[in-house]
Amino acid sequence: MKNGVQVAGVYVHDQDEALQFYVEKLGFRVHTDARNGDYRWLTVQHPDQPDFQLGLFRPQAPTVDDATAQGLAEAVAKGAMPPLVLVVDDCQAAFEAMRKRGVEFTQEPIDRYGSVDASFRDPSGNGWKLVQAR
Amino acid sequence: MKCRSFEGAIIVNGHQSMHSLAMRPTRIVKNSANRDLKLLRRLLRAKDHMDAAPHEDWPISRLASVSGASEAYFARSFRDAFGIPPHRYLLTRRVERAAALLRDTDTPIIEIALETGWNSLGTFGRTFRDVTGESPSELRRRMQLVPGDLEEVPHCFVSAAQRPHLKMAVSEKRRRTKEGRHDGRKGDDS
């Protein structure tokens, strides 16, 4: 793929904690982990999506000022960030495997509109919908 | 429904503590900010629990224990964080769910009332009308006339968008409607 979205990021409270969550609990792998002083560019990738990276970024200075960084981190902790959707072949199976690994589910799988969906959050508070592909 | 608002849109609030904290040494500011974030994350857990089972009873003691906070502290922190007292939030979820069932199913209204957490048809009908401005049967009639075009949007986001925007206590709303006042004065916290 030459044209398209390559990186989209979520704000996380703690990049180490987020890395562990996305890799060990969700099965993503690290794509880039680069540091420059206090700044860390960290992206992970779904094994089936080599063209897309999910950034795990910390709201921080100098990208934003301290007060703004705090406001953004609070918004994440309050679950106020935009929706994220993870597509799976089998929602029930994915739910069971992920829950066993300690993922915090906010909604168990529900069968509706010809599909099955569940919801979970990452440790920072980002909300994901786990949707079964139709 | 008249007011549409995504969950996220109403959640921005100011933590006045930021200004006073800025005067203190950095380390203390960071620790305190970090504590706030952990608390917010735990408060979100209480909100998630209500979202998952709005028909259940959620006394403050139960919500507080989900958040690992004291009862006295919980209600105030929740309101500060989400801009709405916990039980009023629960009410919006119940009304939202009842409205969805009225729209999407032919389930009798009494069954919808019991399923969404009310103990009687009377209380349900009255509260529903107070919150949405129309009775359950009026809403059902109106919604079923509108063809659905939201099938491509994940269900929960559609529900969130149609959640009633309850800015004041139901008792306050009731009182004002009765008195015919619409002066925008702030409601109480109950």
From TrEMBL, chain A:
Name the CDD domains on file. Answer: VOC_like (cd07263)
UniProt xrefs under SUPFAM superfamilies: Glyoxalase/Bleomycin resistance protein/Dihydroxybiphenyl dioxygenase
Can you tell me which residues the record assigns to a coiled coil?
none
Looking at the record, the residues that make up the VOC domain are 4-133
Q: Which InterPro entries match?
A: Glyas_Bleomycin-R_OHBP_Dase (IPR029068), Glyas_Fos-R_dOase_dom (IPR004360), VOC_core (IPR037523)
Which domain of life does the protein's organism represent? Bacteria
* The name this protein goes by in its record: VOC family protein
Please report the organism this UniProt entry assigns to the protein: Phyllobacterium pellucidum
Q: Show the taxonomic lineage.
A: Bacteria, Pseudomonadati, Pseudomonadota, Alphaproteobacteria, Hyphomicrobiales
